[in-house]
Each structure stands twice: as C-alpha cells, then as structure tokens.
Amino acid sequence: MIFSDNDTQKLLEIIKARRDVRGNRFISTKVEDEKLELILEAGISAPSVGYSQPWKFVVIKDENIKENILKNFENENNKAKEIFKDKEIYTKLKLEGIKEAPINIAVLYEPQGKHVLGMTSMKKMGEYSVVCAIQNMWLMSRALNIGLGWVSILDEQKVLKELKADENSQLIAYLCLGYVDKFYQESELKTLGWKEEKKLKEVVEYL
Ligand SMILES: Cc1cc2nc3c(=O)[nH]c(=O)nc-3n(C[C@H](O)[C@H](O)[C@H](O)COP(=O)(O)O)c2cc1C
User: Is residue 173 domain-resident?
Assistant: First the structure.
C-alpha cells in the first residue's frame, strides 16, 4: 500500500495531537464497544520481539476495582509528594483519571518462559514490545477523539493482585480511557512549567 502526502500529514497531525489525559478532562459518555475494539486491535498490531506478542489487556469497568486502584494511586502519590516536597506545584497536579474515565485498561507483559528470538542478549525487549502496543493504542484513541492517560504512580504488585493476574505477569501500564471535553494543544506539564520541551537538535546526534 502506498500512502499519499495527505496520509503522511494526517499521521503527523495525530501524533502531535496525542495527549496524556487526566481526570479533569474525562466526560462520562460511553465508549462504544467497536471503538474499544479498534483501540485493542491497534495494540495487538504492534511490533514485538521475535513476534512474541507478549501482551495482555485487562479491560476494567468494575467500580470496586477502580476504587481500589485509586486508593493504591493515592497511597503511592503521597510518597511521591514527599519526594517532590520542594516543588509546590506537584501537589496541585492531577495525575490520574481512574474513576472519571469510563474504562481502565491494565496492559500486562507476560514473559514467554522460553527463549525468544531477538531477546537472547537484550533482556528487556519483551517489556519494550508491550510499550509499542500501548503507543499504538494511544494514537488510535486520539484518532477516534478518545482520550487516554497513562498512570504509573502505583504499587505494581498490589495492582496485579487486585486483577488476579498470572504470577509472572508484569504491569507495564495502567491506562484510563474515555471521551474528553477537550484535548490540550501541548503537554500539560509543559504548560504548567514542570518541564521544558526538548528541541530536535538537542536530542539528535549525527556520527
Ligand atoms: C511511561 C509513562 C508513564 C506515565 N505516567 C504518568 C502518570 O503516572 N501520571 C500522569 O499524569 N501522566 C503520566 N504520563 C504522561 C506524561 O506525563 C505525558 O506523556 C507527558 O507529560 C507529555 O505530555 P503529553 O503526553 O500530553 O504529550 C506517563 C507517560 C509515560 C510515557
């Protein structure tokens, strides 16, 4: 398949318009099953080391589970507040949308338990493959005008226990998904002055 300049431009627009979405932006509108399926389909279309497809997606709508994950977040975020106590702005940041988002998705890495092509030297490639799936989901969500937020301020083992996950599984991402009232034009952390944007020339080296 050959893509046109318009397609290329559109892809870049989607990449640049993707945002991390947090609780203050989610609205309660239901996410249609067929759209959720498209997002998951984008996930499983990602590249993976040795075609191992080492991912599992746990779709969570159960309010009790969400409540417990939120408590987990609050506990961990209290520790983070202590770490960032000299940065007053940290306490004001909304860093999750667990309850506000109608759907949560835990994305797990399931180690293969045997040798994987491409993982014989660099051992983290399985986890990185799952991250590729997550980015695909993030972009597909944005293309559907659905917001997605990644929450990582969590006690991983407690999340896995809550989800009754296989004992070898690892939590790669806890995602919050739903329609939004708006998408910000740039990273909220940039707008709020937490971090500056790095320019291309700062991060690219030509040898
Ligand atoms: C691996 C990873 C973990 C993240 N964890 C969190 C998190 O716990 N809470 C949060 O509010 N945002 C989290 N984010 C979102 C980032 O803060 C966000 O991507 C970044 O500020 C850039 O903003 P943008 O995604 O809107 O462009 C995470 C993003 C990544 C890639």
Answer: yes
Pocket probe mutation, ligand 1, options 69, 135, 152, max atoms within 8 Å of Cβ: 152
Kindly give the number of the ligand 1 atom that is closest to the alpha carbon of 22: 11
Mutate which of 127, 150, 155 for ligand 1 pocket (most atoms within 8 A of beta carbon): 150
pLDDT number for residue 50: 98
- Closest-CA residue, ligand 1 atom 30, reads 150
Beta-bridge partner residues of 55: 109
pLDDT of residue 77: 98
153 ligand 1 Cβ < 6 A: yes
Instruction: Quote the number of domains for the chain.
Output: 1
Q: Could you tell me the CATH number of the domain that includes residue 93?
A: 3.40.109.10
pTM for the whole structure: 0.98
- Of 3-7, 8-12, 86-90, the poorest mean pLDDT is in 86-90
In a domain, 14, yes or no: no
